[in-house]
Write a structure and sequence with these properties.
Layout (H helix, E strand, L loop, with lengths): L2 E3 L6 E5 L4 H10 L7 E4 L5 H12 L3 E5 L2 E5 L10 E4 L4 H14 L2 E5 L10 H10 L2 E5 L2 E7 L6 E4 L5 H14 L3 E5 L6 H8 L1 E8 L3 E5 L2 E8 L6 E11 L2 E4 L4 H14 L2 E8 L6 H8 L3 E10 L2 E9 L11 H5 L4 H8 L5 E4 L12 H11 L4 E4 L2 E5 L4 E2 L2 E2 L5 H12 L1 E2 L2 E3 L12 H8 L2
Parallel strand pairs: 2-17, 3-16, 6-7, 10-11, 23-25, 24-26
Antiparallel strand pairs: 1-26, 3-5, 4-5, 7-9, 8-9, 11-15, 12-15, 13-14, 17-19, 18-19, 20-22, 21-22
Helix pairs in contact: 1-2, 1-3, 1-6, 3-5, 4-5, 7-10, 7-12, 10-12
This protein binds shikimate-3-phosphate.
Length: 447
């Protein structure tokens, strides 16, 4: 049922959020390959993360809930029903990581998903797994994906697309099969799999390539900083790598926090998110908020289960435009919808480039953003690989569409708070994919 969202000029407050979706998926899915139990604290109740629990159960993992803690106890022997079909709902992370687990475990299964997931590209994960030795048949590059696992071969791969899901699938295939994997990343993507393999297992190492001072060929008295390699990060999984289990404490999801920080940004208010995940590969949104003229402060920073977290406070100011392209786009991959909403209220024109990946998310996010911004009276042009958004003085209340995408729904619910006049959102319930209590939390920060 449609939801009416009234403007609110008084944004402020302190909230804590459900656990990070990416980390939660990995806790559930790594348990399939673990020799001992994994206990995940602050496990979120979003549909996607519940899908990964259901996937683990298919492999015989016993699941026990106690409040927001979930204990995953793997069976003695990893099995699946013959030719099992495993349904991954809307969850790209579950589907792609699962492909690696099945391929490396020598099992056979078919991965399926809902309409949106069935439109998302799967060749990017099938191709390298086939090169490792798995038999995989896709359906025109999409789900259903039929997988016959085998003992896989040691593998080296330079990532053609910046994707943490594909990287993780290959690492998990390596763990499951006991073969070494070396991955080279041209753009560093989120590294929760690497961190969890280190915290709940062994056999993974990560090397960051840093620029080194090198004599300038034109003037030997000078030095230049030069990258010794053409890639930025090397991840090596040893053939003896294994997961033994342990306790994982999941920090609040910074990608969900982004919506509440944006609410502060566009209203000049102040929002604090306690226990917010601060993994260095996820900080693009905080850098962006600073660059567009918000004040960002971090307190009580600690590292638990290898993952940084702390209390983050954002205060909005008069916003300014900022170009987003290259690695900046990768660092903001899940936050672009709400970055676009902030751009709509910034001074100047914001260009978002190198963002074609957004066409293959839960919706075509480029088209969805442009459509909703246009409905709110903002001039927004489609570029070949992104968007050009002309900042406006105000947004008009409008009938907004979620396009079956939780992040589009949440981004435009925030935009509606800053509009002149009420707005409606067609399918507000879609927020349950990542944050079922989103509207309660939004109510807590908007008077
Ligand atoms: C995710 C990786 C990203 C991100 C998604 C979660 C993950 O996807 O957009 O929301 O948990 O690994 P890609 O790997 O497709 O970039």
């Amino acid at each position: 049922m449609k939801k009416t969202i009234k403007p609110s000029r008084k944004i402020g407050g302190t909230i804590s959020l459900p656990g990070d979706k990416s980390i939660a998926h990995r806790a559930a899915l790594l348990s399939i390959l673990s020799s001992g139990p994994i206990v995940a604290h602050n496990y979120p109740a979003g549909d996607d993360c519940l899908t990964s629990i259901a996937v683990a159960r298919e492999f015989g993992v016993a699941i026990e809930h106690a409040g927001t803690s979930v204990t995953f106890t793997p069976p003695e022997k990893r099995t699946l029903k013959g030719n099992a079909a495993i349904y991954c709902g809307n969850s790209g992370t579950s589907a792609r990581l699962l492909a690696g687990i099945i391929a490396g475990s020598g099992l056979s299964a078919t991965i399926t998903g809902d309409d949106s997931l069935s439109r998302r590209p799967m060749k990017r994960v099938a191709e390298p797994l086939i090169r490792m030795g798995a038999e995989i048949t896709d359906t025109d590059g999409h789900l259903p994906l039929r997988i016959h696992g085998h003992r896989l071969l040691p593998f080296e791969y330079r990532m053609p697309v910046a994707s943490a899901q594909v990287k993780s699938a290959l690492l998990l295939a390596g763990v499951a099969s006991g073969c070494s994997v070396r991955i080279l990343e041209d753009s560093v993507t989120r590294d929760h799999t690497e961190i969890m393999l280190g915290a709940a297992g062994e056999g993974i190492s990560v090397r960051d390539i840093k620029p080194v001072p090198t004599p300038d060929p034109h003037d030997p008295r000078k030095t230049r900083m030069v990258m010794p390699e053409t890639f930025k990060r090397e991840i090596t999984l040893a053939s003896r790598a294994r997961i033994v289990g342990g306790e994982i404490d999941i920090p609040g999801d910074i990608s969900t926090a982004a919506f509440f920080f944006a609410a502060a940004a566009i209203s000049g208010g102040t929002v604090t998110v306690t226990n917010c995940g601060l993994n260095p590969t996820r900080l693009g949104i905080l850098e962006h908020l600073k660059a567009i003229n918000c004040k960002v402060t971090i307190e009580n920073k600690t590292i638990v289960s290898g993952e940084a977290r702390g209390s983050v406070t954002v205060t909005g100011g008069p916003l300014k435009a900022r170009k987003i392209s290259g690695d900046r786009t990768v660092d903001l991959i899940d936050e672009i919808p709400v970055v676009a909403v902030m751009a709509a209220l910034a001074e100047g024109t914001t260009l978002i480039r190198d963002a074609s990946e957004l066409r293959a998310k839960e919706s075509d996010r480029i088209a969805a953003i442009a459509e909703n911004l246009n409905r709110m009276g903002v001039k927004c042009g489609l570029l070949e690989d992104g968007l050009a958004i002309e900042g406006a003085k105000e947004l008009a209340g409008a009938d907004l569409a979620a396009f079956g995408d939780h992040r589009i729904a949440m981004a435009f619910a925030v935009a509606a708070l800053a509009a002149v006049g009420p707005s409606t959102l067609d399918t507000p319930e879609i927020v349950s994919v990542s944050c079922p209590n989103f509207f309660d939390l939004l109510g807590q920060v908007s008077a």
